[in-house]
Each structure stands twice: as structure tokens, then as C-alpha cells.
Amino acid sequence: MELKEQILKILEENRGNSVNGALMAKELHVTRSAIWKNINQLKNEGYQIEAVPNRGYCLKESNDILTSQSISPYLKGKATNFILDVRKTVSSTNTLAKEMAANKAPEGTVLIASEQTNGRGRMGRSFYSPATGLYLSLILRPKLSIEDSLLITTSSAVAVAKAIEKITNEDVHIKWVNDLFMQGKKVCGILTEASLNIENGGLEYAIVGIGINVNTKDFPSDIKDIAGSIFLDKPKNQPITSILAAEVLNNLADSMDKLTSKDYLEEYKKRSFLIGKDIYVLKEKKVFPAKAIGIDNRARLLVEYPDSTKEALTSGEVSIRTDYLPK
Ligand code: BTN
Questions:
Q1: How far is the centre of ligand 1, averaged over its atoms, from the C-alpha of 327 (Å)?
Q2: What letter would DSSP give residue 233?
Q3: What does the pLDDT look like over 36-47, one tens digit per residue?
Q4: Residue 94 Cα: closest atom of ligand 1
């Protein structure tokens, strides 16, 4: 760890309290001026650090810059084993995580960013990813067949919905497969990408990419009617984005552990607002009217077409025919 990161770790561990510069210098075996220089660098990077006369340096409670040091204190259980790689700006956490997975990064590696310049969505779309969001990708190496990979996506949707709900106290609903809605607006998208092991038909690795609009206010015109944020204004005096990231990871660790038990599917169904609705199914660039009649135990969306034929959808895109969205 670089000296700057070591200092940040100490400040994080004492967030809200002052840490004596001389004591820090002694503990890290460096001079006080090296401490001072690195503190200034951190301040220049935007960290809210106060120099309190005669007492030392204090990282303010409200400092909400994502770092592995800011997230780690909130991790619990199996999530403490995750390997965090936290960066400020990346092209796409999914693109990078795929490269890392192809280069043998272990299961549980998580790439987290505050901003993406080339965030990717489903169906080849882009995902608007300004610095007011949370973007993360988790590398998994599950023992699942490609058919069962829908379980990863849908259980992640439940894990993230629960995390957002805990942090905001607002209900979160799911639009199959994995769009999360709050007060009728999409606040989170999930993109799961997988690499197939041709020899055994299983998954070589899977990447679960999660993008949450934390407090984005100005969305581009093409999505401004659909997209929303989980907060109008972020709560102050706590590192809320770090707490959210940790909560998401805690829930993901928990749910990935029991994917095949499918217990989460009941919760998925309860949160799903498509069931019983008239929808459009978008397939091969064509649009088919249908009714969403259920979700089966493989997380497939069951639809019925006007001629009474039924289908279980494993992927693709659906949209509601009315304007109804849960408020
Ligand atoms: C969608 O709504 O179509 C899915 C959006 C998924 C966005 C996340 S943000 C983190 C990860 N990196 C990406 O480039 N995409 C996913």
C-alpha cells in the first residue's frame, strides 16, 4: 500500500475523530512532513480532511469518496472475503472485469467506480454513468449451466433491491429481468455477462454489473422520463455511497451462496410489477402484444399471446402497454 493509502486507511478507521500527525508518522515510520504532504494530496483529490490545531487530522463524516477503505468497514460475513478494486473513473466496470476474469482474477473480485465513460447496458445500449452514481461489477465462477445463468441475474436484482430499500426506506420493485424501480422511475440496471466453457457447457465466469443512480439529477433527454435516482439529496454526515456499496455486496455474497436453492424467487415475484399486466414482448426487432402471467422456478417470464399460446422467456426485452408503474 502506498503511504497515501495507509494514511487514508488510518483516517477512515477514525472517521469523525482527529488523528495526531506525529503519532501517524511514528506508526508509519515516516516524517511528519511526509504525512502533511500526503494529507494535502488527499485534500486536493477532494477528501474532506480537517486539520484540527493541536489534535491532528480528521476525515469528516460527510466525506463520500468511494475507496476500499471507506467500504470495507461496512462489509459483513462472506462479503469480507471480496477483493475490492475501487477506482474513480473507468470506461466500463463490466468491460474491465471481463478482462480481469479472462486473466484469471478469482471469484469475488469486485471492480467499483464512481464514474464510467462508456457504461454499457443491455441490448447493446449505453448506460448513463455520471459521478453521481455507483457502478460495480462482481466476478463469479459459478457451477451453473448456461440455462441457469438467469438465476444469477434475478437473485442479484433481489439483493440490490433489498440494499437500496434498507438505505432509503423506500419500496423497490423489479421489472423482469433486472431493472429496479423506485416511485415509478428506473434507479438501477443490471447487466450480467458470461463466458461459456465449451468443454463442459458450464460457465467459465460470469460478471454481474450493477449501476445505481445515487443522486443524479439531470438525465439526458432520451431517458429523463424513465430514469430516477434513489436520493434527491444524499444524506449528509455519513459515507452513504460506501454504505450502499457494502450493503449491495453483503446481500450479493449471501445470495450467490444459495443460488440453486431458489428461495429468493418468491421475493423476486413479490417485487415484480409485470405480472398480470398487458405488455409488449420485443423479439428479433419485432414487437408482440402479450400478457405477463407469471415467473417460473427458473426465473423465466411466462407470457400469453392473444391466440392463447404461451411462452417462457429467458431473455429479451418487455415493456408495459399501459403507463402503469408502481408509485
Ligand atoms: C441496463 O439497464 O440495461 C443494464 C445497465 C447495467 C449498468 C452497469 S453499471 C456497472 C456495469 N458496467 C457497465 O458498463 N454496465 C454495468
A1: 24
A2: S
A3: 999 999 999 999
A4: 12
Cα gap 197→146, rounded to integer Å? 9
User: Whose grid coordinates read 468511494?
Assistant: 66
Q: Give the separation between CA 189 and CA 149, rounded to whole angstroms.
A: 17
Q: Tell me if 178 CB under 6 Å of ligand 1.
A: no
Mean pLDDT of 212-216: 97
How high is the pLDDT of residue 21?
Answer: 95
- Using one digit for the tens of pLDDT, what is the confidence trace for 220-276? 999 999 999 999 999 988 999 999 999 999 999 999 888 878 889 999 999 998 999
pLDDT grade, residue 145 (50/70/90)? confident
Three cell numbers written together for 26? 511514528
Whole-number Å distance, alpha carbon 326 to ligand 1 midpoint, is 23
CA distance 197 to 272: 32
14 CA to middle of ligand 1, Å? 34
Say if ligand 1 is within 6 A of residue 137 CB: yes
Does residue 327 have a pLDDT over 50? no
Of the pLDDT bands very low, low, confident and very high (cuts 50, 70, 90), residue 6 is very high
Cβ(132)–Cβ(327) below 8 Å: no
For residue 89, the SS3 value is: strand
Return the C-alpha cell found at 221.
433527454
Residue 325 has what pLDDT? 45
SS3 state of residue 74 = helix
Element (H, E) at 223: none
Greatest alpha-carbon pair distance for the chain in Å reads 79
Cα–Cα distance list, 88 to 74, 79, 130 (Å) = 20, 21, 11
Determine the Cα–Cα distance for residues 236 and 215; give it in Å rounded to an integer. 12
